[in-house]
């Protein structure tokens, strides 16, 4: 770790750390802690100390105005609290989700108001401090897996609402498993160093004037996934929103370098965020699925604000007149039979092996003309083949889109057991060449192998965004 | 397996196809009219319409028994049950029995296999026929042996004398005329003598189904068979305006395109070729016109605005003083689909002027009538033979696909035509189960007794079966189209939309109205239980609401109003086995109860359910379901249990998940992504089905008895777990979450 | 020509190489077990095993499966000599209409091969891709558990089933 640290140079003003030594760009939030070892040794120890705040008796539901709880629910949805603070098959907000990292596993905490296992003894002040500074009630620093570098921007009023919402959930007595981290990263005071480097405490009143910016940069923490991170796991602010990684998926750039072949507009972004799909862009999957599921029921104006902000970041699309015609025409209703079964292979030109895979296994859905969200996206209009790497395509080819429970949602079968690695490599090569004007990807074979063997997480979530729960969650 | 025998035997050689027309003509023709022959004695079950013994049962010189039933296997185990009955009363081993079912060339006409009536009708007929044939054989043996019939007994396919002398049925049957009318009375075996009936005999059809045997019409492959596919309009009511079939016809393997008006099909040598040709043909078709379906969000307002015929089906008045509380509630249900896993399929062959169709229709005789009308052929020239398909649960695409197949077969004489629907055709064109509205009102007295019950149900017909040719989809698309029959309400006590609308409970005042809606915005017909599902759901939900208002335990409250002893017994049994009322469920968990006697005259069923509702997401998980059933004399307890288990899961899926989506332009539920149903993760952790056997009592149909009570039990459990009552089906996660709020 | 190895036998088929495996099995090889349900990989009726893993044959073109080991339900035994999984399904009477059952069984076969002693949740999770409309789920789960037991027992030789009297 010292080896990595040698060349570190802090550019505090740009909130950016440059690594002179070429470090493989690992997605690790914990790497930050590695650097912090050095920094802590350099005399930041004193900064690490934070006082414990007094425990309180868990507040009653009656102590909060109902409209505050309601707004808190909406804000918590915008913040996607449920996504990380719920284990597969576990109770919502009871924590325990394992976040695997190269340095061990961090478990999300129980944020139900259980007085022992959860945050039932937290005062509102303690909650405000956690959101603003990344410190828990007892004064321990929290790992930046909890995105307080974004949440620090949340206003006191909004935090109050989220607090009201969380404190009125059903308390769940579920202990959070102990983190399994390599020495010495379990030593939390090290995190003070990381914060010194990368946490610029909010709020920022100038941001609040732009509701979309405020939600997207703060509570919505879009940049936590959609931005590249530096060697210590902090967002590179001068490359904010230019693409990042999340749970084994590539989070595409959502600024001017967006690879979407069909430019996004505020309206199309709104539809996508609100409904989880958009006719000429595709459907949300992977870690984006729970995000859009949450945005489905928050106030429309919040989603519109986020969509407007992101559209502006992309630098186009505010006026519909500037939007080019759809790459893939969307058929009008009632013009042809509603086709679910697409068992007919349209002719696909070409000779190579990848074409044969595409023509026989993919084209029947992806060129059948059945409109989204239930039909297969025509790849000419899809972002995935145009992206800087084929990670998401590989994930979807292998595992498909599992059925959502009891809800209308697209289903795609996975081809893990049908296609060999070689066939997938050929397929990806064909798709890149046939549907984009981009250079071929490199390192595809290794990536396919790595993803198939599960060396990286590539779970496809059902599009209802609810983890598949066991039959008896009471057990 | 006899299913295979009949099929293979008939299909093995093309020339044998018409060999089956050997049964007595009267058996074929009987039952064409619904009324029994004049002056006929009151014969049991379907003997009423087909009284000759040899129409039901024949024995050859080797002693092999062939049974004939007009009821067909739908996965409900009817073949095994009928064979058990015959083995019991005839005193032959099951292995010696073959069963022929649902063949207009060979079996009695028993109408449709529907309404949980197979055991009451066919089972009863075969039981009596077998008992009477057994007595005839004993009588004949008595003559031959010079002994008194009373000293003889039948056993294992033979008649045995006290001195050990033995005459096999094969020996006895020679010269015995079974072409005689059944007697009204039979010497039935006493229940304590049963050795086959009441036993969990393994189903005869299962081994082939789990080993890849030919078990379904989809699996038939007669010599020379070719594959056909239909092309359907983009929406109901659209007509084919222009067709360029050249691209389809140019494809490899394509044998021809069949068009009659807006009916369009293509035939190819191989199935995959037919599918590709179907797509090419669809691409060359231009349609015009269309329906204008209602907007789905306005569905119930649309229904209420349609003209109704209102019938009072119960009006009971007694002056009762004082009302403590009055409650009203409205319940609604969206259109739901049969959703067979295997799309409908038929095989048809037109040869030597005879149209033969192998079909998984629930009613081969009614289908024959419809097909002959559509083809303008005499009924004798059309033969319908039942072969199993995927489970149908009512009137799905089975009859329609048979019509499609015969139209293609007529255009291509000689070739056996196999026509299977695609998934979106099954989902998009099957007749749906109608959307329904119910309204319940109740008044409680100070003692917590219901003193007035007031209930109404709004529904379309639940029966557009053929019958008339106009009820066949293809017949409506022909150049000279047939018009669908005008829908009529079905009479009580069975009813249709109003099935089980009259509660079995006793109230001093009770009014029940059936508001029949003749106009059908979407094509609808029979789905398992018809209106009973929604009516029982509504009645039993409302009973819980009234129980809450009365501060009573839901089970005790039901018993308080129920006099029917057998009904009380199943309620008590289900409650006891469930452990009802023992301890309060944990937060987020709810217990619910539901009860009904199907059609108020078939099997009794009570269901208790435990579910959990996740507050934050609205997700429901059924944890434990316990049912108690009284189906009279049980023929096969494992088969009955299987049926009720299935009913519970299917009904739970309807209750929680299922609704057909549509827009003014047509149906949008065309596959499993757009018509989601229950998958394994949501199946209850535990399920128990308890039976109250009633030896010697009449068989009570049980195939549909679970649908309503299961829905009610789940609904009531959800209401308690969520703390909110959901009255609009399906009660999806979103609706539950919205009801809970934050 | 497409070369397919099905239930241990090599077949050379003169068919369109883009034909889904389902139609090759049913129409060319006369195998009944794999069923057409949706053609979209949504219901699992068509499930077969390829190189030990469960595959939707309706969306798997034959040209991608040359040289692979394909197993259908017919490869597990016959009505007279049922394999362990088939015995278990007969003994549990785990079918109503039965149309979905071959697909269920092949997915279970792949599961039990990879995980000989699965938990209830693992069985459910594995079968999540397969739909049953009759509601036979409880029996299917029991049958898979029973099959696991039969397969584990050394004496699980394919003898004719005795039938279920339960």
In short:
Chain B: One of its GO terms (molecular function) is oxidoreductase activity. The complex is a heterotrimer of chains A (475), B (742) and C (166). Chain A is mainly α and 475 residues long.
Break the fold down into its secondary structure elements and pairings.
The complex is a heterotrimer of chains A (about 475), B (about 750) and C (about 170).
Chain A: H1 2-5, E1 8-11, E2 16-19, H2 31-48, H3 66-78, H4 81-84, E3 98-101, E4 104-107, H5 124-133, H6 148-151, H7 156-167, E5 180-181, H8 190-198, H9 205-208, H10 211-219, H11 222-226, E6 244-246, E7 249-251, H12 266-275, E8 277-278, E9 282-283, H13 288-295, H14 300-314, H15 353-366, H16 391-399, H17 421-435, H18 444-452
Helix pairs in contact in A: 2-8, 3-7, 5-7, 10-14, 12-13, 12-14, 15-17, 16-18, 17-18
Chain B: H1 2-11, H2 25-29, E1 57-59, E2 65-69, H3 78-90, E3 97-101, H4 118-145, E4 153-155, E5 158-160, E6 166-168, H5 169-173, H6 206-209, E7 226-231, E8 239-243, H7 246-249, E9 254-260, E10 263-268, H8 271-283, E11 285-288, H9 299-305, E12 309-316, E13 325-333, E14 345-351, E15 354-359, H10 364-375, E16 382-386, H11 398-411, E17 417-420, H12 423-429, E18 436-444, E19 450-459, H13 473-477, E20 509-516, H14 532-550, H15 554-560, H16 565-578, E21 589-597, E22 604-613, E23 620-630, H17 637-656, E24 662-663, E25 666-667, E26 686-691, H18 707-722, E27 728-729, H19 733-740
Parallel strand pairs in B: 2-3, 7-17, 13-27, 15-16, 19-20, 23-26
Antiparallel strand pairs in B: 1-2, 4-5, 5-6, 7-10, 8-11, 9-10, 12-20, 13-18, 14-15, 14-17, 18-19, 21-22, 22-23, 24-25
Helix pairs in contact in B: 3-4, 10-11, 14-18, 17-18
Chain C: E1 2-6, E2 9-13, H1 21-28, E3 47-50, E4 53-56, E5 69-71, H2 84-91, H3 101-114, H4 120-127, H5 137-152
Parallel strand pairs in C: 1-5
Antiparallel strand pairs in C: 1-2, 3-4, 3-5
Protein name (chain B): Xanthine dehydrogenase family protein molybdopterin-binding subunit
Organism (chain B): Teichococcus wenyumeiae
InterPro entries (chain B): Ald_Oxase/Xan_DH_a/b, AldOxase/xan_DH_MoCoBD1, AldOxase/xan_DH_MoCoBD2, AldOxase/xan_DH_Mopterin-bd_sf, N-heterocyclic_Hydroxylase, OxRdtase_Mopterin-bd_su_IorB, TAT_signal
């Amino acid at each position: 770790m010292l080896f990595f640290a040698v060349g570190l140079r802090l550019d505090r003003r740009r909130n950016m750390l440059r690594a002179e030594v070429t470090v493989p760009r690992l997605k690790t939030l914990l790497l930050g802690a590695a650097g912090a070892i050095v920094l802590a040794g350099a005399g930041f120890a004193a900064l690490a100390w934070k006082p414990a705040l007094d425990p309180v008796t868990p507040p009653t539901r009656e102590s909060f105005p109902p409209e505050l709880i309601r707004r808190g629910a909406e804000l918590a949805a915008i913040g996607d609290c449920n996504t990380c603070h719920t284990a597969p098959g576990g109770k919502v907000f009871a924590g325990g989700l394992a976040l695997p990292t190269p340095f061990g596993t961090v478990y999300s905490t129980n944020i139900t108001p259980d007085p022992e296992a959860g945050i039932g003894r937290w005062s509102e002040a303690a909650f405000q401090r956690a959101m603003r500074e990344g410190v828990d009630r007892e004064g321990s620093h929290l790992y930046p897996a909890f995105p307080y570098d974004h949440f620090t921007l949340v206003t006191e009023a909004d935090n109050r609402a989220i607090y009201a919402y969380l404190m009125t959930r059903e308390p769940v007595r579920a202990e959070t498993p102990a983190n399994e981290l390599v020495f010495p990263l379990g030593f939390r005071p090290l995190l003070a160093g990381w914060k010194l480097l990368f946490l610029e405490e909010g709020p920022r009143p100038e941001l609040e004037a732009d509701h979309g910016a405020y939600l997207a940069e703060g509570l919505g923490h879009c940049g936590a996934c959609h931005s590249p991170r530096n060697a210590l796991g902090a967002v590179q602010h001068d490359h904010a929103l230019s693409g990042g990684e999340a749970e084994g998926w590539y989070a595409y750039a959502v600024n001017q370098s967006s690879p979407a072949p069909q430019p996004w507009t505020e309206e199309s972004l709104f539809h996508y965020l609100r409904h989880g799909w958009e006719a000429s862009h595709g459907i949300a999957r992977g870690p984006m699925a729970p995000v859009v599921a949450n945005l489905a029921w928050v106030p429309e104006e919040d989603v519109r604000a986020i969509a407007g902000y992101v559209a502006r970041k992309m630098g186009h699309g505010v006026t519909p007149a500037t939007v080019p015609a759809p790459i893939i025409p969307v058929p009008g209703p009632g013009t042809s039979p509603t086709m679910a079964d697409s068992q007919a292979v349209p002719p696909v030109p070409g000779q190579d092996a990848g074409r044969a895979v595409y023509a026989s296994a993919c084209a029947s859905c992806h060129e059948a003309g059945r409109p989204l969200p239930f039909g297969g996206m025509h790849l000419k209009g899809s972002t995935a083949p145009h992206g800087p790497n084929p990670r998401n395509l590989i994930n979807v080819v292998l595992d498909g889109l599992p059925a959502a429970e009891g809800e209308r949602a697209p289903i795609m079968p996975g081809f893990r057991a049908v296609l060999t690695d070689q066939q997938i490599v050929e397929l990806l090569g064909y798709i890149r060449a046939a549907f984009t004007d981009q250079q071929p990807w490199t390192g595809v074979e290794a990536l396919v192998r790595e993803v198939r063997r599960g060396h990286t997480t590539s779970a496809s979530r059902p599009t209802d965004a609810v983890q598949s729960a066991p039959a008896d969650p009471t057990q | 397996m006899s299913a295979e025998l009949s099929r293979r035997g008939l299909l093995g050689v093309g020339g044998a196809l018409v060999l089956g027309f050997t049964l007595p003509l009267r058996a074929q023709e009987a039952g064409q009219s619904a009324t029994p022959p004049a002056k006929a004695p009151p014969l049991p079950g379907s003997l009423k319409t087909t009284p000759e013994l040899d129409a039901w049962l024949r024995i050859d010189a080797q002693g092999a028994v062939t049974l004939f039933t007009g009821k067909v296997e739908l996965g409900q185990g009817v073949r095994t049950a009928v064979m058990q009955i015959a083995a019991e009363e005839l005193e032959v081993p099951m292995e010696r029995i073959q069963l022929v079912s649902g063949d207009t060339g060979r079996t009695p006409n028993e109408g449709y296999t529907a309404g949980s009536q197979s055991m009451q009708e066919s089972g009863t007929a075969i039981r009596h026929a077998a008992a009477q044939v057994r007595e005839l054989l004993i009588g004949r043996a008595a003559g031959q042996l010079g002994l008194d019939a009373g000293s003889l007994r039948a056993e294992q396919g033979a008649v045995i004398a006290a001195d050990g002398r033995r005459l096999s049925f094969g020996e006895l049957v020679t010269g015995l005329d079974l072409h005689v009318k059944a007697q009204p009375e039979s010497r039935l075996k006493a229940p304590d003598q049963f050795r086959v009936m009441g036993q969990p005999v393994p189903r005869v059809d299962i081994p082939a189904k789990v080993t890849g045997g030919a078990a379904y019409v989809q699996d038939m492959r007669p010599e020379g068979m070719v594959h056909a596919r239909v092309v359907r309009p983009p929406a109901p009511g659209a007509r084919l305006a222009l067709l360029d079939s050249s691209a389809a016809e140019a494809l490899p393997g394509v044998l021809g395109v069949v068009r009659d008006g807006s009916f369009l099909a293509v035939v190819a040598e191989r199935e995959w070729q037919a599918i590709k040709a179907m797509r090419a043909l669809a691409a060359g078709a231009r349609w015009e016109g269309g329906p204008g379906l209602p907007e789905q969000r306005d569905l119930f307002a649309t229904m209420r605005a349609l003209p109704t015929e209102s019938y009072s089906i119960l009006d009971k008045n007694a002056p009762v003083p004082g009302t403590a509380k009055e409650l009203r509630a409205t319940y609604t249900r969206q259109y739901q689909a049969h959703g067979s896993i295997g799309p409908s399929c038929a095989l048809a062959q037109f040869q030597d002027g005879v149209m033969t169709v192998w079909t998984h229709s629930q009613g081969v005789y009614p289908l024959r009538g419809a097909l002959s009308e559509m083809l303008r052929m005499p009924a004798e020239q059309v033969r319908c033979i039942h072969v199993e398909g995927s489970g149908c649960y009512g009137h799905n695409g089975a009859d329609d696909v048979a019509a499609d197949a015969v139209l293609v077969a007529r255009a291509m004489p000689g070739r056996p035509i196999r026509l299977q629907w695609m998934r979106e055709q099954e989902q998009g064109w099957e007749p749906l189960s109608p959307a329904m509205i119910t309204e319940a009102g109740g008044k409680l007295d100070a003692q917590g007794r219901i003193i007035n019950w007031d209930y109404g149900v709004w529904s379309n017909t639940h029966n557009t079966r053929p019958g008339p040719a106009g009820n066949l989809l293809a017949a409506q698309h022909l150049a000279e189209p047939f018009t669908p029959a005008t829908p009529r309400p079905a009479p009580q006590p069975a009813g249709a939309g109003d099935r089980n609308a009259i509660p079995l409970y006793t109230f001093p005042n009770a009014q029940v109205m059936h508001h029949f809606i003749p106009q059908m915005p979407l094509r609808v017909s029979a789905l398992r239980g018809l209106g009973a599902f929604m009516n029982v759901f509504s009645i039993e939900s409302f009973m819980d609401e009234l129980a809450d208002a009365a501060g009573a335990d839901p089970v005790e409250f039901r018993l308080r109003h129920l006099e029917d002893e057998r009904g009380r017994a199943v309620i008590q049994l289900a409650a006891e086995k469930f452990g009802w009322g023992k301890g309060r469920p944990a937060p987020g968990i709810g217990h619910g109860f539901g009860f009904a006697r199907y059609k108020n005259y078939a099997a009794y069923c009570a269901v208790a359910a435990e579910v959990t509702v996740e507050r934050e997401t609205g997700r429901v998980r059924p944890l434990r379901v316990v049912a108690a059933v009284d189906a009279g004399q049980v023929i096969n307890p494992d088969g009955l249990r299987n049926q009720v288990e299935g009913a519970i899961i299917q009904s739970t899926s309807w209750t929680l998940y299922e609704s057909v989506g549509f827009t003014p332009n047509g149906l949008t539920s065309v596959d499993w992504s757009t018509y989601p149903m229950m998958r394994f993760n949501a199946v209850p952790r535990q399920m128990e089905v308890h039976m109250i056997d009633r030896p010697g009592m009449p068989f009570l149909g049980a195939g549909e008895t679970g649908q309503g009570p299961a829905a009610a039990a789940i609904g009531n459990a959800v209401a308690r777990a969520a703390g909110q009552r959901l009255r609009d089906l399906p009660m999806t996660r979103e609706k539950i979450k919205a009801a809970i709020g934050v | 020509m497409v070369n397919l190895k099905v239930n241990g036998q090599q077949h050379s088929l003169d068919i369109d190489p883009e034909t889904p495996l389902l139609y090759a099995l049913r129409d060319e090889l006369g195998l009944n077990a794999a069923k057409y349900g949706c053609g979209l990989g949504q219901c699992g009726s068509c499930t077969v095993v390829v190189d030990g893993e469960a595959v939707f044959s309706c969306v798997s073109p034959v040209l991608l499966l040359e040289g692979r080991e394909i197993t259908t339900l017919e490869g597990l035994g016959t009505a007279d000599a049922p394999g362990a999984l088939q015995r278990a399904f007969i003994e549990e009477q785990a079918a109503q209409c039965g149309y979905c059952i071959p697909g269920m069984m092949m997915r279970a076969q792949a599961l039990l091969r990879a995980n000989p002693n699965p938990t209830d949740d693992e069985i459910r999770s594995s079968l999540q891709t397969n739909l049953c409309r009759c509601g036979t789920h409880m029996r299917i789960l029991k049958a898979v558990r029973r099959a696991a037991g039969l397969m584990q027992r050394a004496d699980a030789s394919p003898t004719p089933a005795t039938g279920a009297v339960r």
